[in-house]
Design brief:
With 957 residues, the protein is mainly beta. It has 14 helices and 48 strands. The strands form seven sheets. The chain has a 32-stranded mixed beta sheet that branches. Strands 1-6-7-4-5 form a five-stranded mixed beta sheet. Strand 19 and strand 20 form a beta hairpin. The two termini are 17 Å apart.
Length: 957
Amino acid sequence: MRKTFTATLMSATALGSGVLTLGLLCGSAWAQEAAPDAKAAETGSTEVVIVSNRFTAKTMQLKSDNSISVLSAADLQRTAVHNAAEILGLMPGVNVMMTGNSFIGGIDGASRGEGQYVSIRSMNSEYNVNLINGVAVAQAQPYSRGVQLNLIPPSGLQTIVLNKTSTANMDGDAIGGTIDFRTPTAFDFKGKQRGSLSVSGNFESQADDLGADSTGYGAAADFSRKFGAEENFGVYVSAYYNLRHYANSELGGVMEASGGDRAYALSYVDANGNIPSGMDPIQDLILTGFNVGVSSGHTELWGGTVSLDWRPDVDTSYYMHLTYAHDWTTQNSSLNQIVGEGTVRNEGTSPLDADGNLKDGYIAVGNGLYQTTIPAVSNRLWYETNPLHSNLSTLDLGVKKRVGKWHFEPNVFYSFGRNDRPNHLEMWTTSIPAGSTSSGAAPYGAATLVTYGADNFPVAHLTPGMESTALNPGTMPAPCCYEVTSGLSQQEKYGARFDGGYDFDQRLLQSISFGAKYVTSNRDVSNRDYTVTDPDPASSLGADTAAIIGYYPGFPGKYDYLVPIVNHQVVAARYNALTDTQAKLDAASDICTGGGTALGVLTNYNCNTLSGTETVSAAYVMGKFATDTLEIIPGIRYELTDVKNTYWVRNFEPDPDDSTNVIEVPGEFQSNKASFTKVLPSVFLNYRPDAKTVYRASIWTSYTRPPMFQLGGSSSSKYDPSTGTTTITKGNPDLKAIDAVNFDANGTWRTSNGGYYGVGIFYKDLSNYIYDSGTGYINSATSGSGAVLISQPKNGGDASVLGIEFEGQQKFDGMPAPFNGLSIGGNLALQTSKADIGTSWGHDERMQNAPDVTANLGLYYAREKVTVDITYHYSGAYVANYDVLGKGGSWDNLWVDPVQHLDVHAGYDFGVVQLDLSIANLFKNYTYYSHIGEKSKAISDIIQSGRTALLTLKYAY
């Protein structure tokens, strides 16, 4: 049986001052070797407990000054999920997202088949603070303040603490919550020396179904030792390596409709080409193209930690903790595309010509209505890569010193984060079947392209020639064009912190805490694009056996369309050969211009180049008043933020040779500044009528700064000769921070028969709401008059979220053997949100990435050497993006369907060796299912990534 252990680390209300390290601990060595201290876990001392099982995690939640949720070592090691983002879904009110809006988003991100971001209590990822052992990590996303958590594997962690409320000594920019990822030091183990070694193997079922590489493996080791006669100097080191191969099937309908192909249409239009009056817009929307594809690749994770701690006496501690995590992911996607041509381009124009005659592509159906037709259909191949190169490191040095009733904790820290998409390669082709037009699209003429089968998958109704091409993609022409986009983004963050306080004896005022923090960060972002044409392509796709080395079965069980397996090395070499001279590369520059000129190259190189600095100065003071049963913790925090952004401005001026034309002239870098000053009061009340019960109530304030891209992104200055006005588009340094007043009340109880129960309610009142709009300016609005107009992003209005959370854990120790090893546990969060997103129509929208329901239910068995866990997870539907088709309304919002999966784990402890088997998504539920419109699945993206199995063998001494 695994044993409970505890470790003295820090005050539960001082998580911002934590000093732990990111490393790797596998299996249950903690449970066997860490120094047990059940007394500390039960007495309610101010020390945080590092926990090995779910029940000591509940004790930690009970004793904390603020509302927290805790994942223990048992939660982390008994899972086959891919990363820390996914395992956070076990916590109440946490929603795990498969994709975001950064360099890679939409179905491209989701097709990796792993969780990447989390929202907490309806608040999206940029509203949360992420810590590694108390150090705020660098935010390396190029267009958002969110942190991509798939970088961190669950096996590299010991405990995860989610702070759902923030006291004055915690960072103030956490409206949703503060996530603290923790690992140990040498002093958290009993004995002078110990270590562990583990090996693992993993299996991906969908990759196996596709005939791709479906296996992976991992290895990890950690070692700790104490030195000196009194063992007061400790060293802890750990390292890990994990390799995962994957291949996932995808259906892309939203991808085709909202991307460059705009493969959707209005089925019926009025005489102006618009949706008929009184018709539900979503019911008028039809899909006119989709793709079937496979996304494959591998992910390598490696990293480790070094921890040095010296404790010369009981009142003094010196420490140096270094952490490092690295992610290198390859992702190669091949897509067999069927795309209707010429439909959406007619939208908004009359189906009648100037003489009142019906145009081609329309059928008159009476009552002033016209049905659109799909003039032509194109079969295509598209291949793209989405490599990810990211890393995250932290360095933490400090001292903890107690002198009488005083305590002082000076600390310096550093964090570096990178999130690059280097050399994103694309190639494409358009087939020309028999009877096609010169544009490569075959005549079609029907009013609909698809009907729908099981699970609302579209079924294409093609001509025999089109169907033959879709079933035999090797008959398509070889690719005509190659494109490479290189996106780089990084942030470097460093600073210093001082925390101190004074403890009083036997008085109503128990303690006063105070501190200050200074942190500055530098951010750099660039994105450059080059396209070249192949002057000598092969006769057909199938004839190019160097580049096309086989075929995947596409989406087994749904489509027979084959998907080419592309030899990436060959394709990359061809692109490099076509751009082997500077002149060729210059001609290929096209992210902002057509290329071919020195100005085009200059613009392409700089137009999406951003840099900036951000400095935050903070100070706080906090007191603690207490009687025998009541604790009152008032506090106030002050934060001053200064931001400076540098960005490129594109300039367009009148053509001196043609007054009706505008030409681009060389641009230049400009900069702007923004500042935010916040005073954040808070008060926390804890009523503890006995040692096993606590009732909490709190009011606290917080805020979130706008993304740096929205404050100072790329700019352009364009002259319109027809009106004589110049329109300047740029970021807005006058954007307001999102402010929040937060209310939280809850009660938790531990029963005498092995139970733990909790219920809580929370409410957040926000102003100046901002959602994640990715690479576009949010709510861009034009102001000014006369010769100069300025278009800038703007804040939304008010927003709110109301929720209730239930949590419980019950052991059945009193039952006869072998049933006395059973326990059951879970949580349920119900929440409702609304936001004024700042558009003319969006005054009452659901918050982004905020499901109304999240739930977890687990059945556990642990007796003698055997452990078994069966867990069920459910997360409700949510809005991922607003108005994805640009229709000026909420009916075309992008919704993500509920996610549910059943996971199982079984383990056996042989003594010094432990064996664990975990299977995630046992019944192979779809991992991502998005669609345009809440009630319609006519236009959907779907990912099937199957189940994941993980077998781990660990030796510990």
